[in-house]
């Protein structure tokens, strides 16, 4: 083999190796802002996130406190706040901005009407928020359900919210829940099939609700989450790679492995739950995708302000 061919081969191998070692980063936030203080601090935290050159940020819901009004004016103000992010910002709705808007303190709105307003305000054009925008694929049935990719990882959002996912207080579910739950299940199953066909290395699912992992594994899942968790666990077991679920809702930042192997009952270590920071503690989580690592994902907790 000639010297020139050997040199060219060495360069090609070096480039391939460099590409394989490339890392990707993103940011995770949620349950913010809940107070005037957090409203003032959030732009500063987003600026710090932007300074780390992450590919994008994801807000997993609750852009206002439960006692704040769900009126158009406040929701438009929060849209403008997130839209000023220096990095592309993806968002999935939380219960505080639609499911719980029937509360008197929040303005006594009809939840389904508020969800329709959120869809028109936040999800009209298939583009992220932020000064820099990224396109994403939308589900036809639920425009807030999105998916996109970063490196070897497929990201998916699903509108699964707190307050029992709007299942309703009675023994029979709300018609709104029935329609949305069916669309969520179809979107989740389709997204995992797409990830397998694309040979994605990992999947990240983002939603707002804490669905009660311990209750689910103990056979006591709430009706509003049981079907979704059953399908999620089936897809995790069938997917040959790490899966991450990101959520907020209960305001307890943690990174753990709450799903259990159906045979050994030991934690499924290739499934990771990341619960983002929430009021009264601000912060964000830096996600790192490292294709050279068997774990693929690494997470760094960043309280705000920095300690």
Return residue spans where pLDDT drops below 50 for at least 5 consecutive residues.
Answer: 3-20
How many strand units?
12
Strand order of the largest sheet: 4-5-6-7-8-10-9
Estimate the global geometry from the Cα principal axes.
globular
Order of helices and strands: HEHEHEHEEEHEHHEEEEE
How much strand content do the residues show? 15-25%
Indicate the radius of gyration in whole angstroms: 20 Å
Structural class: alpha/beta
Total helices: the number is: 7
Average of per-residue pLDDT values: 94
* Most strands sheet: 7 strands, mixed
Helix content: 25-40%
Distance between the termini: 58 Å
Q: What topology does this entry show?
A:
Elements: H1 3-21, E1 24-29, H2 36-51, E2 57-59, H3 72-83, E3 89-91, H4 111-122, E4 137-138, E5 146-150, E6 153-157, H5 175-197, E7 202-206, H6 213-217, H7 226-238, E8 243-247, E9 254-256, E10 271-275, E11 282-289, E12 297-304
Parallel strand pairs: 1-2, 2-3, 6-7, 7-8, 8-10
Antiparallel strand pairs: 1-11, 4-5, 5-6, 9-10, 11-12
Helix pairs in contact: 3-4, 5-7
Describe the model:
There is one protein chain. This protein has 307 residues and is of the alpha/beta class. It is 33% helix and 19% strand. It is built from seven helices and twelve strands. The strands form two sheets. Strands 4-5-6-7-8-10-9 form a seven-stranded mixed beta sheet, covered by helices on one side. Strands 3-2-1-11-12 form a five-stranded mixed beta sheet. Strand 6 (153-157), helix 5 and strand 7 (202-206) form a beta-alpha-beta unit. The longest helix has 23 residues, at 175-197. The radius of gyration is 20 Å and the shape is globular.
């Amino acid at each position: 083999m000639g010297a020139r061919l050997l040199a060219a081969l060495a360069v090609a191998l070096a480039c391939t190796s460099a590409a394989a070692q490339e890392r990707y980063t993103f940011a995770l936030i949620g349950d913010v802002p809940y107070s005037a203080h957090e409203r003032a601090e959030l732009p500063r935290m987003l600026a710090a996130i932007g300074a780390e050159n992450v590919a994008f940020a994801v807000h997993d819901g609750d852009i206002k406190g439960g006692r704040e009004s769900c009126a158009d004016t406040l929701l438009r103000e929060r849209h403008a706040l997130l839209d000023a992010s220096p990095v592309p910002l993806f968002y999935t709705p939380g219960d505080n901005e639609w499911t719980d808007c029937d509360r008197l303190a929040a303005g006594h709105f009809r939840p389904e009407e508020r969800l329709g307003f959120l869809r028109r305000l936040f999800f009209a054009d298939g583009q992220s928020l932020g000064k820099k925008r990224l396109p994403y694929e939308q589900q036809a049935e639920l425009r807030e359900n999105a998916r996109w990719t970063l490196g070897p990882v497929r990201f998916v959002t699903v509108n699964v919210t707190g307050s029992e996912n709007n299942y309703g207080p009675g023994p029979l579910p709300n018609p709104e829940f029935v329609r949305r739950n069916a669309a969520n299940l179809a979107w989740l199953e389709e997204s995992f099939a797409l990830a397998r066909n694309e040979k994605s290395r990992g999947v990240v699912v983002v939603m707002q609700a804490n669905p009660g992992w311990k209750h689910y594994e103990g056979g006591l899942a709430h009706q509003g989450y049981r079907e979704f968790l059953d399908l999620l666990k089936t897809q995790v077991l069938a997917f040959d790679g790490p899966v991450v679920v990101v959520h907020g809702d209960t305001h307890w930042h943690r990174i753990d492995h709450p799903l259990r192997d159906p045979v050994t009952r030991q934690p499924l270590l290739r499934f990771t739950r990341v619960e983002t920071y929430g009021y009264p503690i601000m912060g964000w989580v830096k996600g790192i995708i490292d294709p050279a690592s068997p774990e693929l994902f690494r997470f760094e907790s960043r309280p705000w302000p920095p300690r």
